[in-house]
Write a structure and sequence with these properties.
Layout: H1 8-13, H2 32-42, H3 44-53, H4 56-75, H5 81-126, H6 133-178
Helix pairs in contact: 2-3, 2-4, 5-6
Organism: Ziziphus jujuba (Chinese jujube)
Protein name: LOB domain-containing protein 12-like isoform X1
Domain LOB: 5-106
């Protein structure tokens, strides 16, 4: 800042803040904690080199990223941002699986209700004119076939939904223990 009060980096490093201080625009004196974390994780010299290599219009975004990564490294020294990203990706995967199971359950409920709709439609078929008698017999046979098979389908789908959720949970347990799924 070169005058009244030094920037946060010059204050922390106990040096005079020059007019052309590379840190002054990004680390104001009223937020010393921001630079302290960046300095602790990356070092002032490394951050200075990174900023000098960038065009001026990209430096603010770079500082924002550096500060974010430094905070992530303070919380998780080994993985930093990657740990947070991995955690969020796992959460998204689990939620996608829960959504798929919920959609399968909705489908099962809809299929359980479908036979009732078919029964309601059958009386309308019988009221057609007599000249369509042969055509009506074929439709009745098809409806009867579908009705008989649909009665069994929801149970199959329900069993599928519950067994698939067990497979999903077992797979996640193996993943969390071994880092990958052992079963192909």
């Amino acid at each position: 800042m070169g005058g009244n009060s030094p920037c946060a980096s010059c204050k922390l490093l106990r040096r005079r803040c020059a007019k052309d201080c590379i840190f002054a625009p990004y680390f104001p004196s009223d937020d010393p904690h921001k630079f302290a974390i960046v300095h602790k994780v990356f070092g002032a010299s490394n951050v200075s080199k990174m900023l000098q290599e960038l065009p001026v219009h990209q430096r603010a975004d770079a500082v924002s990223s550096i500060v974010y990564e430094a905070n992530a490294r303070m919380r998780d020294p080994v993985y930093g941002c990657v740990g947070a990203i991995s955690y969020l990706q796992n959460q998204v995967s689990q939620l996608q699986m829960q959504l798929a199971v919920a959609q399968a359950e909705i489908l099962c409920i809809q299929m359980q209700q479908e036979p009732n709709n078919i029964v309601v439609q059958n009386p309308q078929i019988e009221q057609d004119p007599p000249d369509h008698h042969h055509h009506n017999d074929i439709i009745d046979e098809e409806k009867s076939y579908h009705l008989q098979n649909n009665v069994n389908l929801p149970h199959q789908y329900l069993n599928f939904a519950s067994s698939s959720s067990n497979v999903i949970h077992d797979s996640l347990k193996r993943e969390s223990i071994f880092g990958y799924d052992m079963v192909s």
